[in-house]
Amino acid sequence: MRGSRLLAFTLRPVLLVWALAVLAVTRPAGAQTPTPPVSDDEVNRVAKNLYCPVCENVPLDACDTPACVQWKEEIRTLLAEGRSESEIVEFFVTRYGMRVLAAPPPQGIGLGVWLIPALGLPAAGLWLALRLARWRRPAPTPEPPPEPSLDENARMLDRWIREHW
Amino acid sequence: MSLLGEGLLDLAWGLGLIGTIVAFYAGWRREVRWTEVARRIGLVMAPLLTLTVMALEIALLTDDFRLIYVTQVSRQTQPLFLKITALWGGQNGSLLFWSWLMSLFLFAAMARADRLPPDMRPYVAGILLLTQTFFLLLNRFFANPFETFPVPPADGRGLNPLLRHPGMIAHPPLLYLGFVGFTVPYAIVMAALMAGRQDESGLRLLRRWTLVAWLFLSLGLLVGARWAYDVLGWGGYWGWDPVENAALLPWLTGTAFLHSVMVQERRGMLKVWTSLLIILTYALVILGTFITRTGVIASVHAFARSAIGVPFLIYVGLVLVGSLALLAARWDLLRAENRMESWLSRETFFLLNNWLFLGIAFAVFWGTFYPMFSELLFNEKLTVGPPYYNQVTGPLFGALYLLMGVIPFVRWRRTPGASLRLSVGSSLLTALGAVALAAIAGIRQPWALLGFGLCAFAGWGTLLDYALGVGARRRATGEPWPVALARLIARNPRRYGGYLVHLGVVLIGIGVIGSQFDQQETQRTIGLGDSLTFGGYRLVYQGIRQYTPATEPDVVVTEAWVRVYDRSGRLLADLYPYVLQYDTGESLTPPALRATLKEDLYLLLSGWVEGGNRATFKVFINPLVSWIWIGGVVLILGTLVAVWPRPALAPVPGEIRPPLQKKPAPVL
């Protein structure tokens, strides 16, 4: 349940005053430039995969705090300069670290995130299969229980239901 | 009020502690009289805590700003209804609320203690009282809602704006009822271990209690998702936020438990495994409460950080160590009474189900806590967000749908291959048909197509099972089909209620896949009277107004008026997206919705300039989202059917609970 307007709850009072001032100016950011060279949609497409360090767990495109609005304007500028999406992402990563990414790439300290489930889940499955194989034993009665007839009467039917459950 | 509240809390935790000691003593000495004392103490907790909660409610209703808690969640001008619900609007109050709900469950469990085998009664009482006492001690010494200011302020800060929505008012109580509810099955399993019981006399009771807890937890998750969708305004309903994950984790292990306990009940197998699952669920419940209430993992939900972290962690640690030690000590009692006979048996499939649920739970746990690990170990914080969860848990969820489609046709012990081939064959055909239909409807992503196929596979298998049952009844009795269906369900509510839950999950799956893969969005700025066209809709910006509602004087509402037309120019709806700006500086942008079974038009007002002459709108088109809510209702209905009183079930014929074999089967 990401809150798009949620940073406000964690802001310190001083920041808040500043935030209000900036908010008043920047809130209708999209509206300020009537014919923007870079559309909001293009900005959001890049912003969707970025997380600012303050608003944890809220992607940039859904966040309207002053810091995020500023980041989005930066993205707009970079897009206008002709940078590609990956260049822009890299720009933010070098400045703020890997945490700006929605999920870490499978390398360095990010490797553990992916590696453990990728190895652990199949390993657990294999263990389970081996366990089951050992646990199985030949059936004591070779004949499986006879198929109950569906057409006889209600009593038979109830038994059938129970047997199947 | 503060003195009264603290006095009541003191009385409650004191009694709770005495009750816990008495209960365990009674269990140890097998003293019936002391058991009765513990039971009565358990019964007294509910009225005692009801009084305590009432004391806090009175403080909230009378604007008693001497209490720190009251100033945090209320203010003089707050509407009456929100003053009442402010009880669980902050950390300390919500922990008291948790204790109170716990006392209600304790009361229910103690009132029906005669249904438990006598030697288990003292231990059930003891474990529940221990949990209760832990939370009361927390409330008294670490998170006291009755703490006072030396000099009280004139007014409070008011309830967090996010919590003023009806969804958020219902969400925490439901989630907490689910959390608290799982303490009862945990207590029953642990009590059976402590009493050294070998038979499963408590199992039927166990299933009911678990289903009740599961019902509330599911409801809490669904209401939470709906709240996020209706209030937070980012276009979705589930963001893999740590606090959401904290609530999902016990649900996942609890669901695994619900399935494995069936194997234990019917076949006398998987006992250690089942016990482990409920221990895990209980630990995750405590951990979940801890995460939601302390903000150990910074998250949008973590409104408060406080000193309750350390006691919580110690308690979780003690629970795990104690429970596992007990499990180890009683290992011999938990030998399986039967062996697996065939790969193609319900037992195997339930094990697979457990593996998948635990796999998902592990992946979610790992992703949730990895940022904390990386910060502790490498001093670098990471974000583990939706891409991780979707990629890792997606295939596992998919496999669960596969199991759901097959399970109605798989029997206990072993399954004749012929009947399975026929039913699974028809399910496969249906799945292929669904994929073809989805492709014709314009869906191109392979994963989405696969997902729809899996949903169709699971849905068809379940429906076919209903159809076969109804058909058989009709042939046997000549009943008209609605009667046959109703009687079929009434005959075996557990089976058919359970499959109704599966159908609900299928519908939820359809909604999730649709909205996950085919969501479209745009953000545009238009002038008054202008329009924007997107996804087959034409939106005309008609006007904007600002006002302050009489009930909430601390908020300014800016509301836009947008008319929605379809391609042919037919008026579909008038939408009023709005922004709430609170005088604290917080703001909220709830969407305006036009929901149909096909898709939701989800409209946000993102900004405005020139006094509203131009406004920025964000538009989402979320396909099939309504099916999530419909599926949720079906899931809840199915659970209600399953939990309804029912006739006793026969064990699997052929092998009715033989006494423990001389050469015990290995424990799984």
From TrEMBL, chain A:
Top-rank lineage group of the source organism: Bacteria
Q: A Gene Ontology MF term for this entry? A: metal ion binding
> Where, by residue number, does the polypeptide cross the bilayer?
108-130
Record keywords:
Heme, Iron, Membrane, Metal-binding, Signal, Transmembrane, Transmembrane helix
GO CC term (a single one)? plasma membrane
Segment forming the signal sequence: 1-31
Q: Which family does it belong to?
A: Belongs to the CcmH/CycL/Ccl2/NrfF family.
Name the job this protein performs: Possible subunit of a heme lyase.
Can you say what this protein is called? Cytochrome c-type biogenesis protein
Q: Which organism is it from?
A: Candidatus Thermoflexus japonica
Q: Lineage, please?
A: Bacteria, Bacillati, Chloroflexota, Thermoflexia, Thermoflexales
Automatic annotation (TrEMBL), chain B:
Which InterPro entries does the record match to this protein? CcmF_C, Cyt_c_assembly, Cyt_c_biogenesis, Cyt_c_biogenesis_CcmF
Listed transmembrane segments: 12-28, 40-61, 95-111, 123-143, 174-196, 208-228, 248-264, 276-302, 308-329, 350-372, 392-410, 422-441, 447-468, 624-644
- Asked whether the UniProt record includes Transmembrane among its keywords, one would answer yes
Q: Record's superkingdom? A: Bacteria
Residue ranges annotated for the Cytochrome c assembly protein domain, each copy included: 90-294
A biological process (GO) annotation for this entry? cytochrome complex assembly
Keyword Cell cycle annotated: no
Which UniProt keywords are present, listed alphabetically? Cell inner membrane, Cell membrane, Cytochrome c-type biogenesis, Membrane, Transmembrane, Transmembrane helix
Q: Which GO terms describe its cellular component?
A: plasma membrane
The GO terms this record gives for MF are: heme binding; heme transmembrane transporter activity
Segments forming domain Cytochrome c-type biogenesis protein CcmF C-terminal: 313-644
Q: Which residues form a coiled coil?
A: none
> What topology does the record note for this protein and the membrane?
Multi-pass membrane protein
**Similarity field:** Belongs to the CcmF/CycK/Ccl1/NrfE/CcsA family.
* Function text: Required for the biogenesis of c-type cytochromes. Possible subunit of a heme lyase.
Full protein name: Cytochrome c-type biogenesis protein CcmF
**Organism of provenance:** Candidatus Thermoflexus japonica
